[in-house]
């Protein structure tokens, strides 16, 4: 059996949308906003899923874009983020929301540089966080778990990626990994793909044409007003355009041959392909 490529059969993007619409899905977000940024187009394409829960891990934070909000401190910022999450759940018709309540990197003493260059293994929060994620995955009864691939190496994203890999090992759920945005948009595409294959051991699972719902995705990003600026939206859309610009089977399947925006998800490489 060879290494799967994007040229998988039968419009995998549409099959994935149907799976999320009809099945039981757990959407795992390191921070409030990551799911909206990274796979919000897929969720908009799904419409109203039957059973989808948003699980956000690092929900306490001292960071916000507006300076006034930043000065208000962690309690006020964390409450604002919760409001944004609940609004996003309503917008996307998600049936559940679970906040795990861990302190994000800004509250654990990392600065901007350290949070994208530190190893996850040494972080003191790791054990408790992995246990909490494993419990949540088990309790969700999800048949699909959608989690970060940790593109960009943010320590909170690495921790959640590792926790989900551990939690789904040997279980019945299909684990898929989204490309973390806007981080993925800040690197060369070839570097992103090489990292996902070689460092994470992932292979392409599906590309999703989000051209028809891209405005809805952007609306979802701006729900997170405490964190979203225009530059973040631009980087996200630039990535969506560049991955849509190659020859892709889902564009041909749509009959238009002109997919303008896309998102991708990856899966763990089968042992035989490693
Ligand atoms: Zn994040």
The counted number of beta strands is: 7
Structural class per helix/strand content?
alpha/beta
Q: How many structural domains are formed by the residues? A: 1
| Mean pLDDT rating | 91
Q: Strand content of the residues, in percent?
A: 5-15%
- N-to-C order of helices and strands: HEHEHHEHEHEHEHHHE
Shape: globular
What is the CATH class?
Alpha Beta
- Give the CATH topology: Rossmann fold
| Alpha carbon gap, first and last residue | 11 Å
Q: Mind telling me the C-alpha Rg?
A: 17 Å
Spatial strand order of the main sheet: 3-2-1-4-5-7-6
Concise structural overview:
The chain contains 10 helices and 7 strands. With 274 residues, it is of the alpha/beta class.
Write up this protein.
The protein is α/β, with parallel strands linked by helices and 274 residues long. It has a single domain, classed as 3-Layer(aba) Sandwich (Rossmann fold), CATH 3.40.50. It has helices spanning 12-22, 34-46, 67-72, 74-92, 126-140, 155-168, 189-198, 214-223, 230-244, 249-253, and strands at 24-29, 51-56, 96-99, 144-148, 174-178, 202-209, 262-268. It has a seven-stranded mixed sheet with strand order 3-2-1-4-5-7-6, with helices on both faces. Strand 4, helix 6 and strand 5 form a beta-alpha-beta unit. Helix 1 (12-22) crosses helix 2. The N and C termini lie close together (11 Å). The relative contact order is 0.19. The model is unreliable at 249-256 (pLDDT under 50). It binds zinc ion. Zinc ion binds next to helix 6.
